[in-house]
Amino acid sequence: MGLITLKSLLIITIISVILAIGDTKPTDGELVNVAKLDMFVDELPGMPKIYGFEMKNGVHVSKSLEIGMFMKKWKFHRDLPATPVFAYGTSKETATVPGPTIETLHGVPTQVTWQNHLPRKHILPWDPTIPTAQPKQHGVPTVAHLHGGIHEPQSDGNSKSWFTNHFNQTGPTWSTKTYLYNNNQHPGALWYHDHAMGLTRVNLLAGLLGAYIIRDPSLEGPLRLPLDRPLIVFDRSFRADGSIYMNGTGNNPRYTLSGNLSTSAMLS
Ligand SMILES: [Cu+2]
């Protein structure tokens, strides 16, 4: 569908999210045999767009965004039950997996306040045998990282700068609620994702990822691209009840191995 030319500022993003799942044998709950699911029965979902700039007096200026993380249910396939996920969005109702596509302009900074609205408990198991963000009370530690972004360190989503619901608890390097992305680097397609210490793979598996695009109309306009749609490819394994499967035995270092053993690939 359409041509993909990296040089041409593309805006077709293909991101492969490879997550360590551990064992292929389920220990708790029956896995869905995805070979039995009909393919291409769902329309390609279009993620909502959020603009990281606005026009004032004929000039593009910086914009401050607030993007939350919410627990909700998400339909990954017509014949799968709805799946509990963690989703980025401007509200629980509009939150999606992947999250909204953030559209920015080269040279116009975007500020994002990432808000954690997640529940006290995670929807997936944590591995206690590796160094992990440990809130003293309940809560799911999160911190957003703009992958490939070039900006100040305090906005980079350091794994120890995590925070829980309403910033109730914060990690040792946490310093600011609002992140500043300069958007001064080459235009192109990036992605954002959670980055909390020891929980990155779990939080991504739960759904905390999305596309981030830096545009430069002076480069892109003359190309007159016929198609402009970010694509994200990611994979998951599902239990029969629709929930995401993740091995929960906590047998270090099983969780830390990289490699993709999920059963189903999804395109959004
Ligand atoms: Cu990354």
From TrEMBL:
Gene3D superfamilies: Cupredoxins - blue copper proteins. This is Plastocyanin-like domain-containing protein. Its cofactor is Cu cation. Residues 1-20 form the signal peptide. It comes from Stephania yunnanensis. It comes from the Eukaryota. The keyword Lipoprotein does not apply. Residues 141-217 form the Plastocyanin-like domain. InterPro entries: Cu-oxidase-like_N, Cupredoxin, LPR1/LPR2. Pfam families: Cu-oxidase_3. SUPFAM superfamilies: Cupredoxins.
